[in-house]
Design goal:
The structure holds three protein chains of three kinds. By secondary structure, chain A is mostly helical. In chain A, about 75% of the residues lie in helices and about 0% in strands. Chain B is elongated. Chain C is α/β, with parallel strands linked by helices. Chain C is about 25% helix and about 25% strand. Classes of the chains: A mainly alpha, B mainly alpha, C alpha/beta. Chains A and B meet through helix 4 and helix 5 of A and helix 10 and helix 11 of B.
């Protein structure tokens, strides 16, 4: 029988990536490259976006689509990241899964907010009003509240292991609920134009608009990857500081 | 299990239990509405169904904070976890008790409140029907919120932030069904059945998720 | 019946509370866990009660009497934690009756159990009106109204006066004589027969 109250349990390594130190080294190596790719993609995307001809119906306001649509994609993509993180926490108990999920939440909230703001700016000339309670705007507003609630939950429970599992349950139940919310708000009202890129069959959007949109989508994706890795690094460092503080506190007690 | 149901109902009905407070809160919300929108009887009757649902939603959330917290604080939750009865089943029973002392009374007082709001009898009947099938979902979704915030000192606020967005579909279909009951072309049944479906869905998912969260939250 | 722990490790939050802990307690025996604050006494009891996840090793019950079937260890245990698990707005009788119905396997009647903890006649008093020591004794009465072969007691005598401590030691002895098992974390010498002591914080310091 031995007791060592000083031991801080190291996370069980499942893969090489599970090791925070190795992960931090990888982040250090990847982030500059990702940042460069992001800047280049934004450069190309914005240049292409500004050089396309005005839409015959929407005029020059159509260009806000190049920011709005990718932001909306990433707003949903960030939730998917949280869902995989939540599964990682609950099913595989991967030590980095919660870090990934937690780091995705503020980014998702940011992209959702950007999507709402650009949608509103786009809507002003299109619908003649800043805000309408249409299905997609409303579901994104609900998504924003879900993001903010989850961030509050993560911040309220101090112990990382516990907050990870609590948030993971809510993320998953939220994910199950999102289609219901989407369906209900669509039933609630419909005013928005129907989805035009992801529609089955050939995209109805002309190639002239599609290519800059896809480039901007990639640019946003790389922006997300860069910021996500940086946020994960911050979270890992924050946890290491916390562990050191706890250890220091126990040393004093002795 | 019957013992748990009986105890929770008994505790809720005792002074300080919260069942009466939720009803009073409901009354306060409904009474505040005319002051906010003006005494225009026609306008009030149009938004009557919506007012009743908003009031029920908020009043339902009010007592949920204590759903597990009281048992957590006094150690009863430990005993519940050691029981051979699956925890999800116990959570279901606690939700049922919560609904019997909040959701059901909120539904039963609708005729009185409906008169305040100038609603006609068809609207009142529709409101009662939708609240009857919709309010259980508030208890079941709320159980998850109550479970993840059980050990937090001011969990009630966070609970509402987490639970309200998940309750929006019930609100939409609930109020939609009431509206459909009075406006001619829209059928009442589809939104009403959707509310029922959501309630049934969360009657399963809510207790399972809440029980899981309670187990994970132990230390 | 026998409770066996093998190489048990328990983590709470991020901290390893103890590791490689092994012991066994047979029927009619008590294991008294001692050690300084924070050594892991409460953690051990909660882990046995199934209230904390076990990081490594295992804890199980062996040779359980056939009437218990293949019940989980936690289902064979009464756990008396630092909190009393009683509702202050309900009367003593209502509280005990609830736990008796909830836990099943009724053992002593409620008035019998109250007599045994020296609080006969208090049935109708709301639990919230009782003193600290009385509350603790009601909580002890909960162990008596339903039968569980294993008692897990975390500082069971906190708040009790000397007379009540002696009375409680008698109840514990009766449970042991009835082929029960007790695992208790306590500072107070309880004067029981068939006790193994187990001290946290000194390695290999298991002594009879």
């Amino acid at each position: 029988m031995s007791i060592d109250t000083n031991t801080i349990v190291a996370p069980k390594g499942l893969t090489a990536l599970a090791n925070p130190t190795r992960f931090l080294a990888l982040v250090k190596m990847l982030v500059p490259w990702l940042a460069v790719i992001t800047v280049v993609l934004f450069g190309i995307g914005l240049w292409m976006g500004f050089s396309v001809a005005d839409d015959y119906q929407q005029g020059r306001t159509v260009r806000i689509m190049f920011v709005h649509v990718p932001a909306v994609w990433l707003a949903m993509g960030a939730y998917m990241t949280m869902v995989s993180g939540a599964l990682g926490v609950l099913v595989w108990r991967h030590p980095l899964a919660d870090v990934a999920a937690r780091a995705a939440a503020p980014l998702g909230a940011g992209f959702t907010f950007l999507g709402l703001v650009t949608g509103s700016i786009w809507g002003r000339p299109m619908w003649g009003t800043w805000w309408v309670w249409d299905a997609r705007l409303t579901s994104f507003l609900v998504l924003l509240i879900i993001y903010l609630g989850l961030m509050a939950l993560w911040n309220s429970i101090e112990e990382p292991a516990k907050s990870a599992r609590m948030a993971a349950v809510v993320v998953l139940v939220g994910a199950i609920n999102i289609p219901i919310i989407k369906f209900s708000v669509e039933w609630f009202t419909t005013l928005h134009q129907s989805a035009s890129v992801t529609r089955l069959g050939a995209p109805t959007m002309s190639a002239e608009f599609l290519y800059p949109l896809l480039i901007m989508g990639l640019a946003f994706l790389f922006l997300f990857l860069t910021l996500h890795l940086m946020a994960m690094r911050n979270e890992i460092l924050r946890r290491q500081i916390r562990s050191l503080q706890r250890r220091a506190a126990r040393e004093v007690l002795k | 299990m019957i013992a748990l149901l009986k105890r929770d109902i008994r505790l809720a009905l005792r002074s300080g239990g919260g069942a009466a407070t939720a009803l009073l809160f409901y009354l306060a919300v409904v009474v505040a509405m005319p002051f906010a929108v003006g005494p225009n009887q026609e306008l009030l009757s149009t938004i009557g169904g919506a007012t009743l649902w908003i009031g029920a939603l908020l009043a339902g959330l009010l007592g949920l904070e204590r759903l597990f917290q009281a048992d957590f604080d006094d150690g009863s939750l430990d005993q519940m976890m050691m029981s051979p009865v699956p925890l999800a089943g116990q959570v279901f029973v606690k939700c049922a008790a919560h609904w019997l002392v909040t959701g059901l009374p909120l539904t039963l007082v609708v005729p009185v409140f409906g008169i305040f709001l100038g609603m006609d009898s068809i609207t009142i009947q529709a409101a009662m029907a939708t609240l009857l099938v919709g309010t259980p979902a508030i208890s079941f979704i709320g159980a998850l919120g109550a479970a993840v915030t059980v050990s937090l000192p001011r969990g009630g606020l966070l609970l509402s932030v987490l639970v309200l967005p998940l309750c929006i579909p019930i609100l939409i279909f609930g109020v939609g069904a009431i509206r459909a009951a009075v406006t001619e072309p829209d059928p009442f049944l589809p939104p009403f059945l959707l509310v029922s479906a959501i309630s049934l869905f969360f009657a399963v998912l809510g207790p399972l998720a809440a029980a899981f969260a309670l187990r994970q939250g132990m230390d | 019946m026998k409770v066996v722990a093998e190489n048990l490790s328990v983590v709470r939050g991020e901290d390893l509370i103890f590791s490689d802990l092994s012991f066994d307690v047979s029927k009619g025996k008590a294991l008294i866990v001692r050690g300084p604050n924070g050594a892991g006494k409460s953690t051990l009891l909660r882990a046995i009660a199934g209230l904390l996840p076990i990081e490594g090793g295992q804890i199980k019950v062996e040779d359980a009497a056939p009437e218990f079937g293949d019940a989980r260890l936690a289902e064979l245990c009464h756990y008396l934690g630092p909190d009393n698990a009683m509702k202050s707005s309900m009367s003593v009788e209502e509280n005990l009756q609830f736990w008796q119905e909830f836990a099943g396997q009724p053992h002593f009647d409620i008035d019998e159990a109250l007599d045994m903890v020296g609080l006969g006649g208090l049935e109708a008093i709301p639990f919230g009106h009782l003193s600290t020591g009385q509350r603790r004794r009601i909580s002890i009465a909960r162990l008596l109204v339903s039968y569980r072969p294993i008692w897990l007691l975390d500082e069971p005598t906190s708040g009790l006066d000397t007379a009540s401590e002696i009375q409680f030691a008698g109840l514990m002895q009766a449970h042991l004589d009835d082929e029960g098992i007790i695992i208790a974390a306590t500072h107070i010498p309880l004067g029981l027969k068939g006790v193994t002591e187990f001290v946290f914080g000194e390695s290999g310091s298991e002594h009879e």
